[in-house]
Amino acid sequence: MSFDVSAEAYDQFMGRYSEPLAPLFLAASGVEPGQRVLDVGCGPGALTARLVERLGPGCVAAVDPVPAFVEAARARCPGAVVRLGDAQRLPFDDASYDVVLAQLVVQFLPDPVEGLREMARVAGPGGEVAACVWDHAGEGGPLSPFWGAVRALEPDVLGEAALPGTGEHDLARLAKEAGLTVTGAERLTVRVCHETFDDWWEPYTLGVGPAGAHVASCRGDSAERLREECRRRLPEAPFEVQASAWSVRARA
Ligand SMILES: C[S@@+](CC[C@H](N)C(=O)[O-])C[C@H]1O[C@@H](n2cnc3c(N)ncnc32)[C@H](O)[C@@H]1O
Known about the structure:
By secondary structure, this protein is α/β, with parallel strands linked by helices. It is 39% helix and 21% strand. The protein has a 7-stranded mixed sheet, sandwiched between helices. Helix 1 (7-29) crosses helix 2 and helix 5 (144-153) packs across helix 9 (222-233). The longest helix is centred in the first third of the chain and has 23 residues, at 7-29. The structure holds S-adenosylmethionine. The site of S-adenosylmethionine has 22 residues, from helix 1 and helix 2.
């Protein structure tokens, strides 16, 4: 799995965007103090930590299939339940949480509808489910400058725009297919400043996610050509990357 990397590598590559996204997603999900909330595909804990701040560790659980991420989330969120597990077979009982969230996860599931159905099982009838996914299909995600450069050199590569849920209305459609009643949809936008081009580029060389896997698969001078194409397309540093995600809220 291209997320089988250290928590530090993940945080350098994606945490820089998912950390500022977490409070926006939390607000869009309508989580209230007193609720018990499960964070599915928690990674090293960007959203889990915000949930703990808002609800207290006793009301928060999280799950991820990558052992290094589970360990990092446990260290970051003492007192919260953090389990190793898969979104399509959640290690939690029926109706055991009021709200089940997934930030930037549904697009990586082999069967996203099955994953959303499983989230609904754990939320129970009337429980809340919410998910968000970067706008890769609309080229509004944080990695769009990178995938745009890849496509300039290799027009056949679709990159993460091909993943399910990354276009407008896609998540709502998947949620309805999973039997959920959609109650809200929002576009969430963060802006992240990169001080130098290398600060932006270096995390792409750490092998994280499909973009990191793509760089790792480059042979000969193709990684260097890709780096130069990215540099050519990006503004002079320091520059800002604007990243938007589609967010959906639904009732089980
Ligand atoms: C882009 S990261 C998002 C992590 C975290 N939610 C955040 O916002 O920083 C995608 C996460 O999905 C997890 N993931 C991938 N496949 C999964 C699966 N089948 N079940 C649960 N989580 C999965 C990865 O391990 C990774 O932590």
